Amino acid sequence: MSDGGNTEYGKKRFQRSRAHFTDRITADGRDGWPVEAGRYRLVVSRACPWASRSLVSRRLLGLEDALSLAIADPIQDDRSWRFTLDADDRDPVLGIRFLSEAYDRRETGYPGGVSVPAIVDVPSGRLVTNDYQRITLDLATEWTALHRDGAPDLYPKARRDEIDAVMADVYEEVNNGVYRAGFATGQAQYEEACTRLFRRLELLAERLAGQRYLVGDTITEADIRLFTTLVRFDAVYHGHFKCNRWKLTENRVLWAYVRDLYQTPGFGDTVDFDHIKRHYYQVHSGINPTGIVPLGPDLAGWAAPHHREELGGRPFGDGTPPGPVPEAERVPASGRP
Predict the structure, then answer these.
(1) 48 catalytic residue (yes or no)
(2) What tens digit of pLDDT does each residue of 308-321 get?
(3) Contact call for residues 4 and 283 (beta carbons, < 8 A)
(4) CA-CA distance, 264 to 278, in Å (whole number)?
């Protein structure tokens, strides 16, 4: 095994695997996993857009004290996610070196590999779920008894059909689209994925030209899912994944929209550009065999005024912004603009 890089990435056509472990943690505990403060540990990589959704949701809902956090090293190898950022290369709560150990305690010979986000049952050390599509929805709807005072409603019942429709298009053509382009093994595959990606981005820009958020006048789950791809766009997808018809900074609407979210408490304070760049450029050895990480892009623009407040909207609805980031969870200076 190598100390960094994954020998498979970039050498075969991209296909997003469905989550294999789809148990849900619910208020009534119907899958055997009841919502309970302190019982579960959320394992993420700050580099991963799918895991970053759960970071944003957890912050916005104020679940930091109820759901503890483990952050994996962004340099993933063939053994997948590892806890080399922690003392003794072990997660201090779970006592494991690799996330795969929690998977193995749940099931042997599981398909789909080891992915984040993952929620682990602390008492047993067993994986509960790696269902990246469901985790954040359940944080918003099943964990309400543990939400902070003033937590926003990220998945309002009256808007769910519209939210689901928007998220479906974003998932297929944006969240997955950048990967289909980046991992394409043929010119036609690449061109199709890239064309669909930028057409969807253009449609999203048209939608957002006259409204501050994707659905309604408040932040919803749909904004979280688009944000985690857009925040990585110029840093890794434009160059590394060849999604280079234009940079995000060259699209007036989307650049302002993603800066608005980045500057909103709960979004930008979860983003680590250092982890993002090192993961993509050093792990995807099939695409970037030298492992060289580019110096750019310049991150100074993330703090620039966006003027999106002129469109109105209430970021947190009837709620309030989340409080300060816990000291132990602050993104290091190396990962911030």
Answers:
(1) yes
(2) 999 999 999 999 99
(3) yes
(4) 25
The predicted structure's pLDDT at residue 12: 54
Tens-digit pLDDT profile for residues 103-155: 999 998 888 889 999 999 999 999 999 999 999 999 999 999 999 999 999 99
DSSP at 216: T
Per the residue annotation, which of 40, 132, 155, 179 is the catalytic one?
179
49 closest CA partner among 115, 109, 104: 115
- Whats the size of the chain, residue-wise? 337
Q: Are 299 and 273 in contact (CB under 8 A)?
A: yes
Q: Which residues have CB under 8 Å from 196's CB, separation 6+?
A: 173, 177
Rg of the chain on CA atoms, in Å: 19
Choose, from 48, 213, 237, 280, the residue flagged as catalytic: 48
Digit-coded pLDDT (tens) for 251-268: 999 999 999 999 999 999
Q: Could you tell me the two tokens for 144?
A: 């309400």
Cα distance between residue 301 and residue 306, in whole Å = 10
Kindly state the tokens that stand for 54: 């759960």
Name residue 130's amino acid.
Answer: N
Whether 243 is a known active-site residue: answer no
* Amino acid at the residue 28: D
Q: Locate all alpha helices (DSSP H) within the chain, ordered by sequence.
A: 49-61, 100-106, 135-141, 160-170, 177-182, 187-208, 221-230, 252-262, 273-283
Count of CA atoms in the C-beta half-sphere (13 A) of 192: 9
Q: What is the pTM of this model?
A: 0.95
Sheet holding 40-44, edge to edge: 68-71, 40-44, 118-121, 126-129
